[in-house]
Amino acid sequence: MIPDDLRYTKEHEWVRIDGDQATIGITEFAQDELGDVVFVELPPAGSRIDANAVFGTVESVKAVSDLFMPLTGEVLEVNTALVDAPERVNEDPYGDAWMIRIRIGDVSELDALLSSEDYGRFIAAGGSES
Amino acid sequence: MKRTALNEVHRRAGARMVDFAGWEMPVRYEGIVAEHTAVRTAAGIFDASHMGEFRIDGPGAAELVDRVTTNDVGRLDDGGVQYSVMTNADGTVVDDLLVYRLRADSFMLVVNAGNTPKDLDWLRTHNRFDARVTDISHRTGLIAIQGPLAAACLERHAGTDLAALPRYRFLETALDDVAGILSRTGYTGEDGFEFYFSAEHAPALWRALLDANRDRGLRPAGLGARNTLRLEAGMLLYGNDMDEGTTAIEAGLDRVVRLDAGDFIGRDSLRAEKAAGPRRKLAGFRMLGADIARDGYAVHLDGEEAGRVTSGSPSITLKTNIGLAYLPLERALPGTPLRIRVRNRSCPAQVVDTPFYKRGRAT
After folding, report:
1. Is the residue at A26 inside a domain?
2. pLDDT band for position B361 (50/70/90)?
3. B179-199 in b/e burial notation, b at 16+ Cβ within 10 A?
4. Inter-chain CB proximity A36 and B31 less than 8 Å
5. Residues in Cβ contact with B211 at an 8 Å cutoff, skipping those fewer than 6 apart
């Protein structure tokens, strides 16, 4: 459920770090909370987005959820297939439904990401800050 | 939070529970899309036990119901059900409800869960007919079976030919051994039934209905699907699409406002409004792009804010995005272009006829 080769945020994004690049998506917990995903909106490639800024939106039948940038960076690639097949977010959140690939702008921000153990504890405690 | 007799059953089925009008209710089991689709193509079973039920009895019962509701109770005979509205003196909506005539001097009213205490007060305040008003909500279970296969699902349990029961009629009958009131009514736009019975039988009856009809495709469905189904069918939700800030005429409930029947609270205002034409009217719209309008989003006409989306959602059946909003009367016509503000973007939409979805007339 929580792959141990990824890092996580309290906003339920996952981050796969690969050299100076990172791939970003939402977690199994996030897709389950949302329910059937029917709409995904992602930024254009080339965008520069700060950590914690909104980079996109996921909507299910009932809910709207902002996507928050785990790290500052430049968007290199966008999974545009999700626009036509948003249900993939439910089916394969850690695989097919990756959302964006970025060039990491500030490696010092990596320290703020959660390990799989920490994220597991966070969702076991309810998965929200409040 | 209040719980229905089926709370434990829902939890064990893996339902996600939410607070709805002070009740802990299942919003979804396997998923809204699957549940919605089951109701449109096979059948779904809903726990609606949170709804409020009142009995109105005695020689003054019919007069009281006639006095507080806009529809014509005189059109009901025993076994008849009527959709109706209670309005304030200014024509704004206290609640929408179903009226069941059990006998000439005995009625059951079914009201929205969140309005139950308010409605009870309202009925008692206006009861100068010496009718007996009893709140039976707490002991009444309500299960809805909705979908094209609903009649087939219930046939064996009812032990009677349900195909012969017309829409908006009810039987005092039993499902398995549970006595109750079975009406051909619903809130989904499909064929279907609602069964009112003594709440303690709910878990056993729910399980029996599901177990016997799983092969037909009967599935539990939650409030999420209930909302997407009713919106497609153009049915209004109290608190969203109408309330004490909107009149029954503005809400487009003219068909249940019988100005020529007996006097009722709000009649003078509604008659005047009907004659002059309402200032605004609830209209359906369809988004022209992929953006989804949600409850509360701003609606713009000619570059100016004209109102708010009262209900907005993806339409699972129509695979488009739909909603309802109040618009100036002269603009509430199919074809009128609108703009809906979605996250600071102005997204095109168009007024369309409601209901958005109409079931086939096969049944």
Report:
1. yes
2. low
3. ebbbbbbbbbbbbbbbbbbeb
4. yes
5. none
Rounded Cα distance, B186 and B320, in Å: 23
pLDDT of the residue at A130:
62
Q: What is the mean pLDDT of chain B?
A: 97
A44 within some domain: yes
Q: Kindly identify which residue of chain A lies nearest to residue B293, measuring between CA atoms.
A: A64
Strand-pair category, B304-315 with B52-57: unpaired
Give domain status of residue A1, yes or no.
no
Tell whether the model's pLDDT for residue B193 goes beyond 70. Answer: yes
Nearest by CB to A61, which of B290, B314, B343? B314
Cβ-based neighbours of B229, under 8 Å, separated by 6 or more: B36, B39, B40, B146, B187, B188, B189, B190
Q: Sign of dihedral through CA atoms B117, B123, B126, B127? A: negative
A36 touches chain B (CB under 8 A): yes
Distance from CA of A61 to the nearest CA of B (A): 6
Report pTM: 0.96
The answer to whether the beta carbons of residues B5 and B202 sit under 8 Å apart is yes
Q: Which of A39, A57, A62 sits opposite B32 (nearest CB)?
A: A62
Instruction: Name all contacts of B358-362 with Cβ < 8 Å and 24+ positions apart.
Output: B358/B189, B358/B233, B359/B40, B359/B148, B359/B189, B359/B190, B359/B191, B362/B148
Question: What value, to the nearest 5°, has the Cα angle with vertex B29 and ends B23 and B34?
Answer: 130
Task: Kindly report, residue by residue over A8-39, the tens digit of the pLDDT.
Answer: 999 999 999 999 999 999 999 999 999 999 99
Round to whole Å and give the CA distance between B19 and B3: 10
Going by C-alpha positions, the residue among B148, B162, B237, B236 that lies closest to residue B195 is: B162
3-state secondary structure of B224: helix
Q: Provide the domain count of chain A.
A: 1
Q: Which residue in the block uniquely carries the two structure tokens 């897709």? A: A31
pLDDT category of residue B362 using cuts at 50, 70 and 90:
very low
Domain range for A87 is 7-109+116-124
Do the chains contact at B33 and A36, CB–CB below 8 Å?
Answer: yes
How many residues comprise chain B? Answer: 363
Q: Does B294 touch chain A (CB under 8 A)?
A: yes
Please give the Cα distance from B211 to B226 (Å, whole number).
21
Residue type, B95: D
The answer to whether B122 and B68 have CB atoms below 8 angstroms apart is yes
**Residue A72's CATH number:** 2.40.50.100
Domain assignment of residue A2, yes or no:
no
Instruction: With beta carbons less than 8 A apart as the criterion, state whether A55 and A68 touch.
Output: yes
